[in-house]
Amino acid sequence: MSDLQASRVRPRRPRDITVQLGTRVSVPVRDLLDEVIERGEAASIREAVEQAIMQKWGSAA
């Protein structure tokens, strides 16, 4: 492999595990999720949900 090819090869990042939630939430919960994102406390609903799960039941580490 040439130096140019070697520099283009990136190490693989671990893939996210896909969990199909398909969960409905109440209007107040959805409003809270939107507020959390607007305040910049999470970048997305996914991140907000992951943070809440980690705070409630521990870390994934």
TrEMBL record:
Name of this protein: Ribbon-helix-helix protein, CopG family
Keyword terms: Plasmid
Species this chain originates from: Frondihabitans sucicola
